[in-house]
Amino acid sequence: MTSINWSDTAPVVAFLGVFAGAIGLPVPAMPTLIVVGSTLVAARDPMLIIATFLAALAGAFLGDAAWFLTGRRYGYRVLDGLCRISLSPDTCVRRASGFFEKRGVKLLLVSRFIPGLSLVAIPIAGASDTRFSRFTVYDLLGATLWISVGLSAGMLFYRQIDAVLALLRQFGIGLAAAGIIALALWIVFRYVRRTLLILRLRKTRISVDELSMLLASEPGALIVDVRSLSSRRDDPFVIPGSRLFDLATADAELATLPRHSAVVIYCSCPNEVSAARVAERLSKLGFANVRPLTGGLGAWRDAGRDVEAIVVAT
């Protein structure tokens, strides 16, 4: 049986791997580029290298453009969907929102190098009414840098990569099988890590009904909104009596919170991991009774509880 010349398939593999990663499928795009880069050395064909680079760039831009237009159409609501389908912690949404508020569309120059950030930052760019031409420039520049690093790393360390592949072949595992196994292990790892985090934090959560009873019995309880500024702009309502909390200025705000009062944290993500992370942080700083709200603001609203508009200081 004729063996596959993997270098000839490099443009196709690069396009599919990068496109799949860009649209949010659990595909390790950077390792794919590195392996693809290692196969290009044997070909010694500059045109094949250029074709592979352009294919990867096309995959990156097509996937990113799809998310950008989705964010443009549906606004920040698309982030709730990302919370539901992403294997990354929900805090990626908060982190991307905070970075985008500080850096704007220039964040796309480096977002691909931070796992989970690019997938969230791009729909935020669309929801923020960034011009498509401006998005295109920064997205292509960022993708060019990222793809160049991946392919170059593969071409520089091709001997080490070939040695690993040769070892796998001794066990009857080809390149395609190795890729499938690596992908499966990566998905399992991310899923297990996320599941364990949610299970560990579930013990400390408070339900909407429990929060209502807490507010009735302890009027001094602190209700803290830890949503990002962009989320608050898109949904400018809070649980009555809530205090706004911005992780960007966390140290200063944490110092003002009384440590003896009950503290309830909520966000907008359905798995409330962002709120739970803040709750853990507060607990380590000496707050005795900190609990994330199950379901966040959405659960409070769905239960028919009142919300109030955010008052902007003038």
Give an overview in words.
- The chain is mainly alpha-helical and 314 residues long.
- It folds into two domains: 192 residues, no CATH class; 107 residues, Oxidized Rhodanese, domain 1.
- It has a four-stranded parallel beta sheet, covered by helices on one side. A two-stranded antiparallel sheet has the order 2-6.
- It is elongated.
Q: In summary, what is this structure?
A:
With about 325 residues, the chain is mainly alpha-helical. The chain contains 14 helices and six strands.
Write the layout of secondary structure elements.
Blueprint: H1 10-22, H2 29-43, H3 46-74, H4 77-85, H5 91-103, H6 117-127, H7 132-156, H8 158-170, H9 175-202, H10 208-217, E1 222-225, H11 229-234, E2 237-238, E3 242-244, H12 250-254, E4 263-266, H13 273-284, E5 290-292, H14 296-302, E6 308-309
Parallel strand pairs: 1-3, 1-4, 4-5
Antiparallel strand pairs: 2-6
Helix pairs in contact: 1-2, 1-3, 2-7, 2-8, 3-6, 3-7, 5-6
Strand-and-helix sequence, N→C? Answer: HHHHHHHHHHEHEEHEHEHE
What is the number of strand segments? 6
Largest sheet, strands/sense/barrel: 4 strands, parallel
Mean pLDDT: 78
Number of domains: 2
